[in-house]
Design brief:
This protein is α+β, with helices and mostly antiparallel strands and about 700 residues long. Helices cover about 25% and strands about 20% of the residues. Among the domains are: about 55 residues, Winged helix-like DNA-binding domain superfamily/Winged helix DNA-binding domain (Arc Repressor Mutant, subunit A), CATH 1.10.10.10; about 50 residues, no CATH class; about 60 residues, no CATH class; about 80 residues, Signal recognition particle alu RNA binding heterodimer, srp9/1 (2-Layer Sandwich); about 180 residues, Alpha-Beta Complex (Phosphoenolpyruvate Carboxykinase, domain 3), CATH 3.90.228.
């Protein structure tokens, strides 16, 4: 079973692009690795995401349907005006006898049941049009009852298609009726009701799959044999072969190991598939075909060729995982570990032996050298020869990828002991920024001088000199940056998938989360110790405007699926912004106690949870200052509760009460602003219209 939040996000992404996307395009839009996407699609199954055209294209599928009755006392279907959803109702919501409100109480329950709560009206329209036969024109009864013969022939204004096929219930693999919505007559009839060729093609592919499943013989499924079906397209029969229910095709397209079955359907009306596009540089590879066996456990001849690129010090994530399609053309070094130590012989860089021993020594900050190998880590020399360390990219630059390098930052105390940043020194309650925060700043500018506060003291961290200075006392301390040690055995465990059993891998969660409280679905609330830097950071933010209130406790919300979707959205916005980092803020939100569990499970949604005001648009409101959100917090006998959320505010503009989404930023490219504010120059109130831009990170419980 696929996580509902993940399924909803994928469906929303597909429907925002017309109901279908190429596999590579989908990966690029959501920032998933090939293996993660394959696991997600497999877990959801073809009733949610259907792979067609040889596995190159993903279609959004749903069982949600609109009620066809003129009067209904209540059923499990959506109750909506058909013409309104097709943008053809001229009566308006006040005059029309059918509902125009997709978020009515009964419709919200139906959408929630089908994991579609996050879809807007336009996205729901796309999804229903390509799945629900109710939106199609009427089928010709004469054609269906007279053995595919209609006296009006091509002049008929109704569909000459098998009515049972459109509902997925045609019993005849060799039906004499047409199963083709894409012939000239059918397309002409569809266009009269506003259904274009793209939607028709999507509907056709979904119907083909359902027809094949309906007529599948169990013994043939179990045997894994191919068998033929014939689909009549008017008077001419066409024969197609069903694709075997294996992962051979998806393995070819995604380069993933055949761990879970995904059913691939080749539409009978779209022709054979072509080979996939070149491997994306933005995805993490996840396997290789049989022809590449043997490459993953040795440096190989190809790796030796790549090592001649003396100016390159980055190891290819694709190759270290299993296989890089770029081979000799790859700009990065090919090696089977995420690190590599080399020595310069005067002409070329050569691989050092005892690689793991050197790496383990280097990862320990107390080691400035490895005497047994005569290696000096300070000068990066071995005797009189130069030494260098190659590695995969830093984990903070590619947070959703595996086998990146996690860098740990340390400072040296008065006892010459190295203390990791973010960890408390023994006998000292004062904490500092975490390694992840410092590494992010270092990646932004390796020569920067970064000011920070720990307790009551102000410091400066000089990356170039690797020195920490107390601004008041001028005390200087050494700083060290070393990678977290990963053995060759650890690498193999990751590559063989023992650490990726869940469709929401632990690797995607922040390192400071409690690993024992990571549910497959939903969330866990973890109380934070008041001695940690994490607690003090949130406390300080809260007390900037709430000094007369005492914090009872702070809970961290650990919802792996919401966090994963939040990271996908962040990567998506970054790509849409030309690679520029997205502006992210910690903001406050006041909510009633009843809504808090829903928000922690399913995220904020103004249509479900309600919104605090509409002065700047109909979205979810957040405040820079806790005192502002306090006015919206519901008081209880114990006190008050308030959310602290991570919000991708991005590029913002002043809002307006009429906005239901941000206004255009660039009309030529159809770019929208990311959020709205009360004041562009000094924003205190932020309005977000897309819930995937939010992660509910903490709940503060407090009293006066």
């Amino acid at each position: 079973m696929c996580d509902p939040a993940v399924s909803s996000f994928l469906t929303q992404t597909l429907c925002a692009h017309g109901g279908r996307l190429g596999l590579r395009e989908l990966q690029e839009n959501i920032g998933l690795s090939a293996l993660q996407l394959q696991d997600t699609l497999s877990a959801a199954g073809p009733r949610r995401f259907l792979l067609v055209e040889g596995g190159q294209v993903v279609l959004a599928v749903t069982d949600a349907r609109v009620c066809v009755r003129k009067e209904c006392d209540g059923c499990e279907r959506l109750h909506l005006c058909k013409q309104h959803l097709m943008s053809r109702c001229h009566l308006g919501p006040s005059s029309c006898k059918y509902s125009h409100d997709i978020m009515s109480a009964e419709n919200k329950l139906v959408l929630k049941k089908h994991d579609l709560s996050g879809l807007c009206e336009n996205e729901l329209q796309v999804l229903l049009l390509q799945n629900d036969a109710f939106f199609l024109p009427d089928t010709c009864q004469l054609y269906n009852k007279k053995g595919s013969h209609c006296t009006q022939q091509s002049n008929c204004n109704k569909l000459h298609v098998c009515q049972h096929f459109l509902k997925g219930r045609c019993k005849f693999p060799r039906c004499i009726m047409s199963h083709n919505l894409l012939d000239d007559h059918a397309l002409r009839v569809l266009e009269t009701v506003g259904i274009d060729g793209k939607i028709a093609s999507n509907f056709q592919a979904i119907c083909d799959y359902k027809h094949m499943e309906f007529n599948r013989e169990p013994k043939k499924v179990n045997s894994g044999l191919n068998h033929d079906f014939e689909f009549d397209t008017g008077r001419n029969f066409r024969r197609i072969k069903e694709v075997k229910t294996t992962l051979e095709t998806v393995q070819c397209m995604l380069d993933v190991p055949p761990s879970k079955a995904v059913l691939l359907i080749q539409s009978s009306h779209t022709g054979p598939s072509s080979t996939g596009p070149a491997q994306s540089r933005d995805q993490l590879p996840a396997g290789a075909g049989d022809k590449d066996k043997g490459k993953k456990n040795s440096s190989s001849d190809e790796a030796s060729k790549d090592n001649k690129k003396d100016n390159c010090d980055e190891i290819c994530l694709f190759y270290v995982w299993k296989y890089c399609k770029n081979k000799d053309k790859c700009k990065s070094v090919h090696y089977h570990l995420p690190y590599k130590w080399e020595i310069h012989d005067g002409l070329n860089w050569k691989e050092l032996c005892m690689m793991e021993e050197i790496e383990k020594a280097y990862c320990d900050p107390k080691n400035s050298s490895l005497p047994s190998k005569n290696i000096n880590f300070q000068t990066m020399t071995c005797s009189s020869s130069l030494v260098r360390r190659l590695s995969t990219p830093s984990s903070v630059t590619k947070p959703t990828f595996l086998l990146t390098t996690q860098w740990i930052w340390y400072w040296k105390n008065n006892q010459n002991k190295w203390i990791e940043y973010g960890e408390q020194e023994e006998g000292n309650s004062m904490t500092s920024p975490s390694s992840a925060i410092i590494e992010n700043l270092y990646q932004a500018d390796p020569c920067a001088i970064v000011p920070f506060q720990a307790g009551q003291h102000q410091y400066e961290l000089n990356f170039k000199e690797m020195i920490q200075t107390n601004i008041h006392f001028k005390t200087r301390r050494q700083v060290c940056r070393r990678p977290k040690f990963v053995s060759s055995e650890d690498v193999q465990k990751i590559k063989t998938g023992s650490q990726r059993d869940s469709s929401i891998p632990n690797q995607t969660c922040p390192s400071h989360w409690d690993a024992s409280a990571l549910p497959d679905f939903g969330y866990k609330a973890v109380v934070i110790s008041n001695t940690t830097s994490e607690y003090n950071e949130i406390k300080q933010l809260f007390h900037q405007t709430m000094k007369n209130y005492s914090i009872l406790k702070i809970q961290r919300i650990q919802n792996p699926s919401l966090w994963k979707v939040f990271q996908w959205q962040k990567e998506k916005m970054k790509r849409e912004n030309g690679g520029k980092e997205v502006q992210e803020k910690r903001l406050f939100h006041g909510a009633d106690v009843i809504s808090m569990d829903t928000i922690c499970s399913q995220n904020f949604d103004w249509r479900i949870c309600g919104s605090n005001g509409t002065n700047y648009g109909k979205g979810i409101y957040f405040a820079r200052d806790a005192c502002y959100s306090h006015t919206y917090c519901q008081a209880t006998l114990q006190g008050h509760s308030m959310f602290v959320a991570r919000v991708l505010v991005g590029d913002y503009v002043k809002g307006n009460a009429t906005f239901v989404r941000p206004p255009m930023k660039c009309a030529a490219k159809l770019w929208l602003y990311d959020s709205c504010v009360d004041d562009e120059f000094n924003p205190a109130v932020f309005v977000v219209f897309e819930k995937h831009q939010i992660y509910p990170e903490y709940i503060i419980e407090y009293k006066e």
